[in-house]
Amino acid sequence: MVKSSMNRMLSGNGLFYPIIGFASFIAFLYLSFGDLWVNYSKEINLSFVERNGTQFIVDGKAFYINGWNSYWLMDHAADYTTRPRIGTMLQAGAKMGLTVCRTWAFNDGGYNSLQISPGKFDEKVFRALDHVIAEARRNGIRLILSLVNNLQAYGGKTQYVKWAWEEGVALSSSNDSFFYDPSIRRYFKSYVKTVLTRRNIYTGIEYRDDPTIFAWELINEPRCMTDPSGDTLQDWIEEMSTFVKSIDRKHLLTVGLEGFYGPKSPKRTTSNPESWAADLGSDFVRNSVLSTVDFASVHVYPDHWFKHKNFEQMLKFAAKWMLSHIEDGDRELKKPVLFTEFGLSNDDDFEPAQRDRFLKMVLEVIYKSAKRNRSGAGSFFWQFLVEKMERFNDEYGIVPWESPSTYRLITEQSCKLAKVHGLLPTQIEHLKNFCAPGN
Question: Which residues are in the Glycoside hydrolase family domain (predicted)?
């Protein structure tokens, strides 16, 4: 009786369809802006990371980093079906005692692009990056945000050159014109300014004022092979690092180098993997010594660089490579050195035990550097994934909790670094138990 009266009331007064329409509208709002109701007020308070000589400093204490790469965070946050992976990965990182994640703050052209065309941005994707930063803040994880790719993945410098060519303003079709074309330099500066001054819709904080961001990285793995002297790339680094600092003096800045020594470096023949490494247009010391660059970055991929060395030879080279760059940080640069990517491929004759030996060696070099207060300030696994992300695996990927031995290496490193310089407030909840004496 009550039900039939209600039906007559809804249909007789024409309210049924408006109510259904209103419900649909509410559902749309939730799907589009649901994160606006997520409580980000419970995030852990973070301080800006500073630099004192060869060390990073947080709240007056030396800060050595056990970190990782998950470049895919923004891309996955742009889709509500994959967005939960961001929280899963950041929470897992925090539980392992990791403190910094390196990820892309770019996607130029193509699917889920942040920058659709020069100066034109997709607000949905910008909100995805907002979400990544807010979620990192809530989990006590800091971020290194890279601003463009030297490679073609996610657009990179190739896309910038293509845009200039299509607009009829390009000087050349060469990818390396990214570094010297005035129009392309303006494109990139406009992009950088937009990102650095973005106000996060969830936290209300401009990116340049947010201590969740550990540092900016100018470009992932820059190479300018059309000018092996290195002058073109050096000019670009000088201009762009100065430009970033003119907008944001609170955050640290790095270039994003792989660490190769250039043709004028005395280490080009003694420390490079092979002769080709001196002809890529980059130079580790020269590029990193600039006053506008706060710390140096290095990558470690011995099985990618060598095709004719066995595992033991590659392991020996990787250790020597790391120590050479730490020496540079101590003696030449007087700055911290971060090994922002390191990994061993699971291609060909891959053995899990070999990967663990390689990881252990890298982590041990950083631990010894921390004990001696040297410039080797941290390392970042390439790369961590979560479940059901097989198609994003580039043969270096690890779902860390699926490999007990690797997981143990990671957490042990977090504990060892904490015992040298103390636990950060963000680590106490997760590490106080399994970092206790005797564990």
Answer: 47-384
